[in-house]
Amino acid sequence: MRLSPSAKGASLSEIEALYRERFPEFRRVAAAIVGDRDAALDVVQDAFGLTIKRRARFRGEGPLAAWVWRTVVNTALDHRRALPAVPAAVEGAIPPANGRPEEPAALATAVALLPERQRLALFLRYYADLDYRTIAETLGIQVGTVAATLHAARAALRNALSEVQS
Amino acid sequence: MSDLARALETLVPPFDESGANWEDALRRGDERRRARPLLLAFAAALAVAAVLGATPVGQALVTGAFDRLSAWVDGAPGRPASAEERELVARANARSAAPIPDGTELGLLVSTRVDGVRYDLLGFRDRGSLCLRLRSSAGVSKDIVRAEADCVAEQLLVDLGKPVAAFSAADPFPRSRMVALYGLAADRASAVEVRGERSVRRVPVTNNAFLHVYSGEGPRLGERNRLDYRADVPVRVTALGADGRPLGSVRIMSLKRGYPAPPSVRELPGPVVIDHALVAPHVGWLDRGELRGEPYEWRNSFLPRMRKLHPNPATSLRVLVSRSLVGVSGQREPSYCLATLWPLSERPSGALCVPSERIGGLLVQPASAIPFDAQFPVYYGLVADGVESLELYLSSGARATIPIVDNVFALQAPVADPPKLVAYDAEHRVVAIEVISY
Fold it and tell me: Which ipTM did the prediction report?
């Protein structure tokens, strides 16, 4: 791919710092997307392999973290698309000890039925605690769109939960 | 914590142990640290090939090795596939936004059985491409569904001049920890030798195809690290004659071992200097909003309204293009966006947006039909107005003209052997050069 003449690249130490600092969150988001907690480890390792391999392509136009998150999300989506069509995150659902057993399943289904952008925004917000700007950079959308996207996702999920609880 | 946050917390709980392994990530990504010895080995192999090419015996090894694929001469290769498999392909094709031609026949090339599970390698022709489709009797409930098919342009196999081609070395069955390596071999090959990091296995060739399925499980599976379970990654496949003599071999590339560093422009055949730089390169019809190709609505995507083009008659692959103000790469400026539709696939995959002012003369994006370790990725992209022709220069010395349709192109190249793509203007001046690598 031809790059911008101003490409500056990312250093290995910067990428390593991100990896060591945020690995559990990377893995958790990957698990949510792929729906398989074991496979998520491989997804994150592959994503960082790609990040390292392509680090010279980082243009420095946004935060490095967003660029890396984008690679992790895209790698997880690629992995996900090769899987049978079962709802994402279902395999990660573990019924709470004292909760209604149907609640996680309903939530998992509701999450799986969200539009992809809403689902990804939700995962990045709740499982990685990313700020709106980083989510926007990661998903390639406006910051204002992140707020609206999350609002719509939350509303859909609350509806699903309230139906189960009522 | 809100009810929703608590529920989401339960849905995907945090990990007790992180599993972080930076050294593993480095191994997967730092191709230069690993690839240099491979590159030198490859240069040596090329030198050997060049010497062989100068002799009558060598000529038979390195030229036109894929001219003789008897099982694929006409109709379906091998024997007819089961009615169930034919129906599955027919249904996928009916749903597909990149259908293969009606009447395409599906054949069963080779089967193998491992741990009570049967694996079938099916084949069909898609225009000028030879396609392989791997199926498992374990069914979709237990195993991953592989991509609908892996296809390689027949002319590329001829141009590469090797008697064997491994299409893929992926782990398509991760839930059962199975690894598959499959591909095609010329008529003279009766078997292939699969050399792994720690083992050598001989696999028969049937109907010009080979299929090697084995357990990738290693002694450290319990540690949840999939890198550890893949005990032995294939590194080379050699075609063997009936007398057991080697006929020629190909390297197997894998992300886990690292891809080779791409050669420099000067290390490959073809032009090395740009004769004429395009001024403000752009794609006029996209900028003007002209409706070329066919409309394609990518629902639930940030690239909803795209145009579908069929740039290469050797494959049913389609390329989607659009001009957008919102790109997947986070930029917020007018961008050219691309995605692919694989033959038989229902939905697009991959997406790339590049600011329109930065495409240069040539924009190339790699993609593969399977998640990992495809040996023949597709490279697709855009050329700017003013580019009249594209030529691909393989390190084997072969040269191919790449068709351009409405500024869009798609080609295939071996991941082990990055080629050079050269763009020419109407006066046959070189306006862009790219060494394309995965």
Answer: 0.83
